[in-house]
Amino acid sequence: MNIKYTLLAISLGFSITTAIAQNKASTAKVKTPVNANGNYRGVFKIKPGFEVPFNFEIDKDKITFLNAEERFDGGKVYQTGDSVKIKIDQFDNELAFKINGDSLIGTLRKQDNSGKPIAVVAKKGENFRFKPSGAKPAADFSGTYDVVFKSPSGTDEKTVGVFQQTGSKLTGTFLRITGDSRYLEGVVEGNNFYLSSFIGSTPSYYKGTFSNNKEIVGESVNARGSIAFNGIQNQNAELPDAYKLTYLKEGYKTLDFSFPDVNGKKISLKDEKYKGKPVILTITGTWCPNCVDEASFIAPWYKENRKRGIEVIAIHYERQLDSAYVKKALNGFREKFGIEYDQVVAGKPDKKLVAESLPALNNFLSFPTTIFINKKGEVAKIHTGYSGPATGKFYTAFVEEFNKEVDSLINK
Hints:
Number of helices: 5
Helix content: 10-25%
Mean pLDDT: 92
Strand order of the largest sheet: 1-2-3-4-5-6-7-8
Order of helices and strands: HEEEEEEEEEEEEEEEEEEEEHEHEHEEH
Strand content: 35-45%
């Protein structure tokens, strides 16, 4: 063989062998992407030595927060390699994680990086909420309780506690005139109880004791501090009449307003669309957990009842008022709940500013507030706050009263 070709063959063989070796080495360095899908138990480390547990599920590009019987659609999941980011647009928050084996380690933070982030650790495959101690419940503490929260300002707040116990599992909520604490889930161990909740906004945590003489003592804890509460079981416990807390000033019968929708179109009760029809006004905000519950009720209700000649307008007060933010927030809210009624933007969610933007109101106490308008364009009733589905019999009573009032407005 010609020496020239012999050397060329040897050179080619060496190059191929080297390329194969380099390719193997390169392949060995590439890690197989870890799939974040699965069920998790997470804990928020809200302050040294104190953790708030929560449960969630990641399925492809979606996170679902789990609280009692509720499955709450939390937002979009984005994974790049071992990094996982969850955009909780509903509350302008995000969870940012690194995958470490079967754990997620990261923070809950505002999307604009304002404020102080909260450290979070989550473990895949753990389905419990509070670590079981083995202690059996001292009794069944299910029931309705008169509960008073001791405000740091010295002002007591009357609430109603509703609890359901099955074995050592405890679920429940606290009703306030401004709304309820939504779905709380936890355990009873001996006389002690622990409850928590998280849907993407602020972690909720309650702990305390039940006594055998049907008393309850505890505290609500967050990163800023704690609020003590106490109460006693009372199956007839109730809040002040929600229809008597907000009303019109003397001399007023109507609400006059003209607020823009996301496209800048002004909407008013004087528009032809609303003349001669009863109208439900809901004072709301996409950031408000109780408003979420209200929207999940009113949106399908409107689809079923609009043919009866009833209309709905959602008056939004949002944390930011620039056009891009408003469109993102309200369009996302519309899509999430299937809203087909008009949404307008009236300002920022400051109670004083709300009252100023609707000057016929004597005050403004709560998001949401629901206003019933008759066919003449006059205010018939105003309901302050919202008792959502987590409140059981109180929610049932609200729905019955709501439909009764609508029937009255339509039939007059």
